[in-house]
Amino acid sequence: MTRLFATPDVALRVELPGMPVLESWNAADHPDQRRLRAYLDELIRLVGTDALPTGEPLALELVVGLPATIAPDRGGRDLDNYLFPVVRRIGAGRVAAVFGRKLQQPGSTVAVGVAVRQAGPLEPPHLHVRTTTSTDSPAWKHAIHEACRRVSAEPLPSGPIALCVRFGVSSRRNWSALWKPAIDALGPLLGTPNPKHPFCPNDDRIVELDLHRDVDDLLADDVVIDFWWRRLAP
Question: What is the phi/psi pair of residue 110, to 5°?
Answer without folding.
Answer: -140, 145
